[in-house]
Design a protein that fits this description.
The protein is α+β, with helices and mostly antiparallel strands. The protein has one domain. 54% of the residues lie in helices and 19% in strands. The chain is built from six helices and four strands; from the N terminus they run αααααβββαβ. The protein has a four-stranded antiparallel beta sheet with strand order 3-2-1-4. A hairpin with a 2-residue loop joins strand 2 and strand 3. Helix 2 packs across helix 4 and helix 2 crosses helix 5. It is globular.
Length: 151
């Protein structure tokens, strides 16, 4: 227990003030998406998440921002009181990217195994999987690829 607590303190000390603010934003977004995924239809949730219009940004900068956001969303999910799975994390990441004007796709896939069916949700930007292993699209057959509208 203390080893885990100590490692969290070390990680927390490495975050800048801006990263702390983003971490808090991610924590609250996870807190909102967790019940929303149980109470609202998928179409209703899609209508709530939009991408702010933005000019074409540098693709390398966009990917760096997305990877940093993924790291902070994952950290917020680990620090959460509720059990956060891939779906609320993916919705949160997609929402946070959209707020920053970065268009991305939420992907939901399934994979059949010897023990049953596995499902996973992740976020792509221009075909690049954010924060996941590169073989995710091969391991999971995409059931849904959600593109969110731009106002």
């Amino acid at each position: 227990m203390w080893k885990s607590f100590r490692s969290k303190i070390i990680i927390a000390r490495q975050l800048s003030f801006g990263e702390w603010l983003t971490l808090v934003e991610a924590w609250w977004a996870l807190f909102g998406f967790y019940p929303a995924l149980r109470w609202f239809s998928f179409d209703r949730l899609k209508s709530l998440i939009r991408t702010n219009s933005s000019e074409k940004a540098d693709p390398i900068r966009v990917l760096n921002v997305a990877k940093k956001l993924h790291k902070l969303v994952y950290l917020a999910s680990r620090l959460h009181l509720l059990p956060m799975t891939c779906l609320p994390r993916a919705f949160t990441l997609r929402w946070m990217l959209g707020r920053r004007g970065i268009p991305a796709q939420l992907r939901i896939g399934i994979s059949k195994t010897a023990t049953g069916i596995l499902a996973h949700a992740w976020v792509d930007i221009d075909g690049e999987t954010i924060g996941e292993s590169e073989d995710i699209p091969e391991r999971f057959k995409i059931l849904s690829s959600v593109t969110f509208s731009v106002p």
